[in-house]
Amino acid sequence: MDSDMTFDPSRIKALTFDVGGSVFDWQTPVIAHVGQLAAHHSVELDAHEFAHRWRRRFFAVISEIRAGKRTKMNADEIHRHLLDGVCEHYALPATDAEKDDLTWVWHAMGVWSDVPEALERLRTRYKVTILSVLSLSILVDSSKHAGISWDGMMSCEFLTHYKPEPESYRQGAALLACDVGETMMVAVHPGDLAAAATAGMRTGFVEPKMEEAGSAGDSSGFDVRASDYADFATQMGC
């Protein structure tokens, strides 16, 4: 990976954003809905722990799909599939309909407050898109819910590989008619960015708003390191 001294934003044509945790706040709505469901069934549980167990298992399934150990499923199918086991672990007697409703919470995630203005600034200069393991329906619905717009949305459910496989990043760049080196991955997760860099992308790290799996790690080697999205837009010349 090139150092910051050699990075030139003018050579970037497209930005591809991770969104789960990076742009959208999944924790607040999921934890709130789990807490309400537990209260309805008079079950005492740690809603934060429940949500993060669900999230960790989601990525475990993604890894199994990448390894060829599972048939490919999209994010909605994975989320719903996992709820049976997670609810059983916490002795939460949720009905199928309640599990369906909980799965749908991912379609109404809120956006971090500094994102909307920054996206509009960035769109004046770059192609600004999503590249995510989440389903297209989640990306569309949560974007509409949050009132934000993109130049495009790419879900790995339509690619031949899931992130963080190098080919997923290269396919994303190709779909935008850009060389991979003209494309920057933007995320709060160092692991996602390190994988993108291995594939040849440039990288933009934004400090996470909440602690979550994948947001820890060394961010010193990325092309841009920003305290928030306004800072990121400024560093990208917007």
Outline the structure in words.
This protein is an alpha/beta fold and 238 residues long. It is 44% helix and 13% strand. The protein is built from 9 helices and 8 strands. It has helices spanning 27-40, 47-66, 75-89, 96-104, 115-123, 136-146, 166-175, 190-198, 229-235, and strands at residues 14-17, 24-25, 110-111, 127-132, 152-155, 183-187, 202-206, 224-226. The protein has a 6-stranded parallel beta sheet with strand order 5-4-1-6-7-8, sandwiched between helices. It has a two-stranded antiparallel sheet with strand order 2-3. Strand 4 (127-132), helix 6 (136-146) and strand 5 (152-155) form a beta-alpha-beta unit. Helix 3 crosses helix 4 (96-104) and helix 5 runs parallel beside helix 9. It starts with 13 loop residues before the first strand and ends with a helix.
Features:
single chain, 238 residues, alpha/beta, six-stranded parallel sheet, two-stranded antiparallel sheet, 9 helices
